[in-house]
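Honest question from a wet-lab person: if I give you the sequences of every part of a complex, can you actually get the arrangement of the whole thing, not just the pieces? Trying it with mine:
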Amino acid sequence: MKKLLIHNDKVPNIHTLDVYRAQGGYASVEKALKTMTPDQVTEEVKKSGLRGRGGAGFPTGMKWSFLAKPEGVPRYLVCNADESEPGTFKDRYLMEKIPHALIEGMITSSYALGAKTSYIYIRGEYFYVARILEQAIAEAYAAGWLGKNILGTDFSHDCHVQVGGGAYICGEETALLESLEGKRGNPRIKPPFPAVAGLWGCPTVVNNVETIAAVCPIVNMGGEEYAKIGIGKSTGTKLISASGHINKPGVYEIELGVPVEEFIFSDEYCGGIRNGKKLKAVVAGGSSVPILPTELILKTAKGEPRLMTYESLADGGFQTGTMLGSGGFIVMDEDTSIVKNLFTFTRFYHHESCGQCSPCREGTGWMEKILHKFLDGTANESDVDLLWDIQSKIEGKTICPLGEAAAWPVAAAIRHFKDEFLEIARKKKFTDVSHYNRLNKISA
Amino acid sequence: MKVTIDGIEIDVPKGTTILQAARMIGAQVAPPAMCYYSKLKTSGGYCRTCIVKVTKGSAQNPNPMPKPVASCRTEVMDGMEVQNFTSPEVLEARKGVVEFLLINHPLDCPVCDQAGECKLQDLGYENGSAKTRYEFKRREFEMIDIGDKIKLHMNRCILCYRCVKTAEQFTDERVHGVIHRGDMGEISTYIEKVIDNDFSGNVIDVCPVGALTDNTFRFKQRVWFTKPVDAHRNCPTCSGRVRVWLKGEEVVRVTARKDEWDEIMDTPDGKSGFICNSCRYDHKQKSDWVIEGPTQVNRHSVISQNHYNHLNELKVQVMKQQKALGFMPLDKKP
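Yes, you can. This is the full assembly:
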């Protein structure tokens, strides 16, 4: 299996510039600045078919080409390192182990976009990662990779790390920009999109950590070569943060197109379900994407094996499919209570809703309270229909995607595991047999 | 630019939003708006009551928009087709939004000074359902004191951000804002600072609900027992054009003049109609004002009822309504 992003993560002291450089680091900066024009770099990224790794999967080359380029107005590149989706921890691994991979990508991408300044907005809980990045940036400045006239060319670039306050909503790109400007992290109403008016009203590109890091191998090997990895429109490699009831949780770099079954059960990756239990359900791309039961995650509704690609996971729409999302792969064994899991997710979204628009502000709290009734064993059968109705009234009615992120898991859990809800409502009792009994005493 | 809303076509200038175009056509197609305020820049987009369905994006790109959009923040395109009251989907979604706005609202209308001129009452009456499906304790905030002129009831707030934007755009200094987040977000000043400057009282007029009310009018009168008259005085600070609310010969309160969309009117010569605190609080004598004549109040407004001549008829109507809703009859106690 080909690894492009974390192939050298086990090399001792890879976080230092010297070791990183000895491993072939910063080659993309040299190649881009010395032999390519900015437009050529953008063209290579377009050819590579790279898609945003933050969750939405929007083609990166296209996003870059949307960037408005008016005369005399600065442009910015902002790296979204506010990785807060429950179940996703790939960016942290990358930044913690190989900080220079991100900085190299920032320089190359900024060159392509013509940005003289770039920002890495990192979530507050990753303060120690921010220190690692700051150290790496200082090294890069000292070695002349950042600052004025990089490599003797007339391209100058400054990169800054900004630590956020630790709010999930600041991972939404416009809320991130608000927060970066020093304001309350409320999402902006679009349009205008950041490509036209972003940071301080200037054209801005916001990309995920992994997306920016992936620009380096694309420039090094060429866009066409990169596009050969993967299947169809899902090109290249992807970092997957695997967690849950598996033998080997952790961050794995996969070539897009690996069958889900192989990913869960092969020893190269997750190594199967722990304690010899059976698989019950999988949340394939971070907590906000729909949960799928075993039969639908391993095979699509048509009976074809499901692959780890944007298209295959989304096959069947939300009726029988899900999304690759940010790659937060959460596996649940047969003892897991879907209701309790859903409660945990919903509690998170209730806590993280910014409160700007009413459906999300009020609806998430309401859903959490109803799910709490299920855990108390006081819910009625009609509460399942009520939950369904509430989520349908949140979805698509909000300013930013947080409303959808809160509604989708509820919809999917009811769609695929309605019996579990009804059973609790009928028995008027919630019994949890999972290993996580210590979490039994959840207070609202 | 031509835009069609609920089958009615209108020609509007570039940059007009769907909501503004709908208001130009008239009240029969205008979506309700709780947070949008045409006099305040960047307002709107939060409450989601004004959502509409765009069935045709524009003449060039006739595809419908995938999701319902907030009409107050979406600009029209040439050839756009919009469905508001004709789309059952929109009405259902709006009903949902109204329900969300009401689940944590205390519904203390009987003791609320805003009752009778409250936008949330109108909205609930037009789009809400008669019974609630919410069975939990409603959210409560601790009362904070923001001075002797303005009374803040955070429990009633729907977080429309209008008062924040008013303070930012019409006063020298904004000392209040939204603190905390999500459904615990609240309007507050920094460590209970007093809101006090020449134009602070306008936050009362822009508040769509009873969250910000006039402290000097508190519990004085129900609005429908008072008589609004348009009046003016020579004011050095503001336009001096106000609405004086009379009870007999007594001036019970002074507000700015509002138009049919419940927004503060500009003066005929195009100046801002926001009034200063001196007009609002310090001139409570009828002799302070030059009365122009009674205010034109919408016939359907409870304020125009003013006098209950047909009390028996009204009682029968109320009983009929309550019977239809399945409530206990008015004169039979449980």
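Two things worth pointing out. The interface with chain B takes residues 167, 169, 184, 189, 350-359, 361-366, 369, 386, 392-393, 396-399 of chain A (CB under 8 Å). The mean pLDDT of chain A is 91.
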